[in-house]
Specification:
heterodimer, A: 99 residues, mainly alpha, 3 helices, B: 649 residues, 27 helices, globular
Chain lengths: 99, 649
């Protein structure tokens, strides 16, 4: 099996996510970008599992899915909480940690 | 629980219960005095019963000692210290004195302290005091002894400053504690040196090391300090501790001030606990002192000098308790001479007899003070024999015992001390003997000066004096009877006795003194005995002459020799000399150099400087923190890319 096409897609997905995270300002979109990166990494894992004919990568991917679900539950809750408090979702205005 | 463990446990339980009562009464709960008194008396009485039981066990032929290992106390590397209690003949003697006399004093104190607002606190401390003293004599190693040693120091501080609302009392307690700490520093250093030399701090282990092969070599080696041998240095350091606790020159200054505490405390600390600890320490480490003639000579010289000088200081005091305080210092001088002669049993016997007559005298003084409405100045007493005859009889008997009137207790014990000092034949022994003889004359004088000023003549005070409650005169009477009779435990051979006490104690403490170069014969012993007794009686006669027959003599003397009188009244100005020579320079160095330059300048400079540097760096670097999430993530991604490039490229 040639892994290269799959890995290419995975890299594209990851880079899209990373670029989206860096250029967009809306927290929700940032969230989507994170998911995109996560899925890019997941695709790579499955590709490697397939390549080595081992279940390890797939098992890892399932754990990652569960993790992503939990993360989005917490993350979305935080997004909602931030919106309720600040009435906006602009990541650049949320700079309370500025030194 | 075996009897040996019961001794400290009972005392500690008493202290704990009364401590709880004390806390409860602070929260406004009314605790009946009877309850506190019962607990307070039960603790030492149970301990006394247990001590008697242990004494019976130890005395059985072929037993000799009882030992209980309670728990591992300290286990650090190759240092292993068990909390082990040991009772041998020496311990038994001390235990019986501590718990026996302690019980009587506790009973007396329940009446004396009647009505005090901190009644439970007083007895919590008193029980604790007895507990620590019991630990001190029961410990099987120097650290356990040191635990008790520090404990009695703590309790003396608590009890001397018992009426702390008067700042004078609180500072007297502090003085006792601080002076004792100076001695403790010596004790600790001596302990370290022994550990370094012998690798053990158990008494048995030390003794085995000392008696084993190489022990003499290790202890005799040059310690590198003033060319003294290791044994000399260790003994002298430990003896510094003993001078602190036992109020010897040069660390005796705390004891007269300690009279600020309630009188039963003085009785307990002078008779049963605390001040005899130093004598016990030297006796317990007799095998060690045997390696150093220098240390033994020092003990004798210090004891002799203290005996005489403290005796002199006592003769012009007007505070009844101060007279007794100086007399204690002087009498402990005799004990030190005794343990320094190489016959620790004679020193210990003076501990026992002194415990009886000093406890009786202090309790008597307490009764007098109680009867005279807290008047302590003897110039405002007098004629009390009619008002309180029972106290007068008890105190006179005890005073006569202390002055060495035959055949009362002090006669036997003091005489034996002086005889051994004379017989030792060394220069230090002779010096101690001369001081002891002069001290004997002083003892007779100041004791009967106290008796005549208090009980003789006419009443010079205000208010009606009255006899004290039964609980008080019964206890002091019992102690006075002891002071009369206890001497017969050690009747010397020359008087047809068998020295039961010496034989008993020496089973544990084999004599280490080299046999005297020349044995003085019986006629010499008779002569010395006669001389010391005559000196004591002469002192009594002089006191009678000066304070009963013709009270104008002391004033005339003071006018004729004003400087001597001033020197005596000022107690040789030792306190003032320490104040000017030690306390003030230390204070100056503390506030000038240590506080202003070392603390404020250097140490605070380092601390504050490093804090300021950290602040400066942080203030500069804080600008890198933009607080932008995307900037952080971008930086992170870039860093990961660089790392990957390095690792894979």
């Amino acid at each position: 099996m040639d892994p290269r096409p799959y890995l290419t897609v995975a890299v594209i997905l990851f880079l899209l996510g990373a670029a989206g995270f860096l250029v967009r300002r809306n927290l929700l979109v940032l969230f989507l970008a994170v998911e995109l990166m996560l899925n890019g990494a997941g695709l790579a894992l499955i590709t490697f599992a397939r390549m080595h004919l081992s279940m390890d990568g797939e098992a890892l991917f399932f754990i990652m899915l569960a993790l992503a679900a939990a993360e989005s539950a917490v993350g979305l809750a935080m997004v909602i909480a931030i919106y309720r408090n600040r009435h906006h979702l602009d990541a650049d205005k949320l700079d309370d940690l500025k030194g | 629980m075996d009897a040996l463990t019961l001794i400290p446990v009972a005392l500690l339980a008493g202290a704990a219960l009364n401590g709880i009562f004390s806390l409860a009464s602070l929260r406004g709960r009314r605790i009946p005095e009877v309850l506190v008194a019962l607990v307070a008396i039960a603790a030492p009485v149970v301990a006394l019963a247990a001590s008697l039981h242990v004494f019976g066990d130890v005395r059985q032929p072929g037993v000799g000692r009882v030992e209980v290992e309670l728990f591992d106390w300290i286990a650090a590397g190759n240092l292993n210290i068990d909390m082990t209690l040991v009772a041998d003949n020496l311990t038994c003697v001390m235990l019986l004195v501590i718990t026996g006399i302690g019980s009587l004093i506790h009973i007396y104190a329940t009446a004396y302290m009647h009505g005090d607002e901190a009644y439970p606190r007083f007895f919590a401390c008193l029980n604790l005091f007895t507990f620590f003293m019991a630990m001190l004599v029961l410990g099987s190693s120097l650290p356990v002894l040191f635990l008790g040693w520090e404990g009695v120091g703590l309790c003396s501080y608590l009890l001397i400053g018992f009426w702390w609302k008067d700042a004078k009392n609180a500072s007297a307690g502090m003085k006792a504690f601080v002076v004792n700490r100076i001695g403790d520093a010596g004790f600790l250093l001596g302990m370290f040196l022994l550990w370094q030399t012998a690798g053990t701090l158990e008494f048995d282990g030390l003794r085995q090391f000392a008696e084993g092969a190489g022990g003499a070599g290790a202890f005799g080696a040059d310690s590198g300090v003033f060319g003294a041998s290791v044994a000399t240095l260790a003994c002298l350091l430990l003896f510094v501790g003993a001078t602190g606790k036992s109020a010897q020159i040069p660390l005796f200054v705390w004891l007269p001030d300690a009279m600020a505490g309630p009188t039963p405390v003085s009785a307990l600390s002078h008779a049963a606990t605390m001040v005899t600890a130093g004598v016990y320490l030297v006796a317990r480490l007799a095998f060690l002192f045997s390696f150093s003639a220098t240390a033994l000579a020092t003990v004798m010289v210090i004891g002799g000098a203290t005996c005489f000088f403290a005796g002199l200081m006592a003769v012009r005091q007007n505070d009844i308790k101060k007279v007794l305080a100086y007399s204690t210092i002087s009498q402990i001088g005799y004990m030190m001479i005794g343990v320094g002669t190489g016959w620790p049993n004679v020193g210990l016997f003076h501990v026992v007899t002194h415990a009886f007559f000093k406890a009786a005298l202090f309790l008597g003084a307490g009764s007098v003070i109680h009867a005279c409405h807290h008047e302590q100045d003897m110039r405002h007493m007098g004629g009390l024999v009619k008002k309180m005859p029972l106290t007068a009889i008890a105190m006179t008997l005890a005073a006569a015992a202390m002055a060495g009137v035959p055949p009362l207790a002090g006669f036997f014990s003091k005489d034996e001390v002086l005889w051994r000092a004379f017989e030792s034949g060394t220069a230090a022994g002779r010096f101690a003997w001369v001081c002891g003889m002069l001290g004997a004359a002083c003892t007779g004088f100041y004791m009967f000066r106290l008796i005549f000023m208090t009980f003789g003549g006419k009443y010079r005070g205000h208010g009606e004096a009255h006899e004290v409650p039964a609980r008080m005169w019964v206890t002091q009477g019992l102690l006075a009877l002891g002071a009369v009779g206890v001497g017969f435990l050690a009747v010397p051979h020359i008087l047809g006795g068998h020295d039961l006490f010496g034989v008993f104690v020496n089973k544990t403490l084999p004599l280490w003194a080299a046999p005297a170069a020349h044995h003085a014969d019986a006629s010499t012993e008779w002569l010395l005995m006669g001389t010391s007794t005559a000196l004591g009686l002469a002192g009594i006669f002089a006191a009678w002459l000066c304070y009963l027959r013709n009270p104008r003599i002391p004033e005339a003397c003071a006018r004729t020799f004003p400087r001597t009188a001033k020197l005596l009244e000022g107690k040789f100005f030792v306190d003032e000399a320490y104040e000017a020579g030690i306390v003030r320079p230390v204070e100056k160095a503390a506030s000038g150099f240590f506080h202003r330059i070392l603390d404020r300048g250097i140490i605070e400079g380092i601390v504050n400087g490093s804090a300021a540097a950290a602040t400066f760096v942080a203030r500069t670097l804080r600008h890198s923190q933009t607080g932008l999430v995307r900037a952080g993530i971008g930086l992170m991604l870039a860093a990961v890319a660089v790392l990957l490039f390095i690792l894979l490229g």
